TrEMBL record:
Catalyzes the post-translational formation of 4-hydroxyproline in -Xaa-Pro-Gly- sequences in collagens and other proteins. Residues 377-476 form the Fe2OG dioxygenase domain. Its main location: endoplasmic reticulum. This is procollagen-proline 4-dioxygenase. Keywords: Dioxygenase, Endoplasmic reticulum, Glycoprotein, Iron, Metal-binding, Oxidoreductase, Signal, TPR repeat, Vitamin C. Its cofactor is L-ascorbate. Belongs to the P4HA family. SUPFAM superfamilies: TPR-like. It comes from Carassius auratus (Goldfish).
Amino acid sequence: MVAREFTFVVCIWTVCAAGHEFFSSTDQIAQLVEKKKDLLTSFSQYIDAEEKNIAKMKSVYLNLLLSYSDPVNHEKIMRDPVAAYKHLRQLRDELINIVNHIRPSFYQCNEYQDELDFLEIPQPEDIDGAALGLIRLQEIYKLYPEDIMKEMALSADEAYHVGLVAYNEDKFQHAFLWFLYSLDTLTEYSAITEKKLLQSLISSAYYFGSLSVAIYLNQQLLNIDPTNDEVRAQLNRLLYSHRTSNADIFTLNTESSKYERLCRGEVDERTSRRQRALSCRYSTGGGNPRLMYAPVKEEVEWDEPLIIRYHDIISDTEIEILKNISIPQLSRSKVYQDGWSAVSQHRVSQSVFLQDDPLSARVSQRIADATGLSIETAEPLLVQNYGIGGRFEPHYDALETGENDRIATFLIYMSDVEIGGATVFPGIGVAVQPVKGSAVFWYNLYKNGELDLNAYHAGCPVLLGNKWVANKWIHEFGQEFRRPCSLSEWE
Ligand SMILES: *[C@@H]1O[C@H](CO)[C@@H](O)[C@H](O)[C@H]1NC(C)=O
């Protein structure tokens, strides 16, 4: 079809550029009549091509329309990381499909063209990032591909892509398990082939150190591709390889840190007798007039260091407004490394500092009232949303800058999380679950200004749900009369 358009354009060009005096030669006129005939033919061919193009566009459009008429609740789908991954991929393919079908036409509708120019198509890096989120979930929660696909399954091609991402990150066992799943779900419509999958499985097994599995699979590959000399040569190399390890590639048995075990709920000191002795009470912030008639519900989640939960600190409507203000401004959260802030795999979320916003000012005042601390020197409220496999690996909030450090953290949960997403303190073995409308508060520094090593904490990856939090980091300056310094080493 491109060639036909070309003919059409060339014809016009010939007519225009020839520059003959037609009036002085009947032969020239005869030629022109011939040219007009040619032109009409290519014009008609062009119309045919455009008609076919229109028909194709119509069918693409109708198909896309069908996929949108499903009465789906997007928020509900996106709370499942597997569904979110699947949708992101599909969306990319569909958007590219639309754009590709617009391009060949000469006809341009300006408004539509503008929309296309501003269209942000998810990039391959976005899809890879989503796959990496799934892999990180698997690692922390020790999940097999089958376990992670609770509500929605991935196709063989999608699973193959997740495997490739794992492979490129040198996570050979996870890659192997995804390739295996892909092989199990392979259909005649899959783009990926059995041969290619077997080859990927062999490489993953080999690099993982599972030589016997690699050899077995290489035999299988040779059975279905007996004339392939490269496969035969590879089998010989494997047979004479000295990589001697018989690691079991089928069983997820990765070493776990305390952080990971806390996230999985395998340990939680709070269930012990010590926790039951802790209290729940209404507090007026030591006689704060603003709290006399509306005391805050305070619960001690842990005693040393003190972790306090404030219940019903923010209403559902306030949460909705904060989310609405934040959504258009969200961008990938950063971490401080060597004095610089940078994007990191350790912190996967999007966030925004809300400056000069009346509601966040009101929420901040409530934080000051509840904790009795000054928020004059605090950072603006930081609203955060966690994406696929979103998490914040163990860290201290204090920046150890020497002066006016983050003395305390007030963390508001703006959503419940169905599975995962706990705030965990590996040093003391405590996991705090997100409860919408509540907040937890703890000190990062001792009264003497030293870092409290037990304030080390993490945000576990979200396995099912959409996690929203808002953070207030309270600083040292201004607290001199509220939380007097201490010379003691012990508080
Ligand atoms: C938040 O935004 C949604 C969608 O635009 C809207 O329906 C809702 O009314 C907004 N909520 C508030 C409290 O402003």
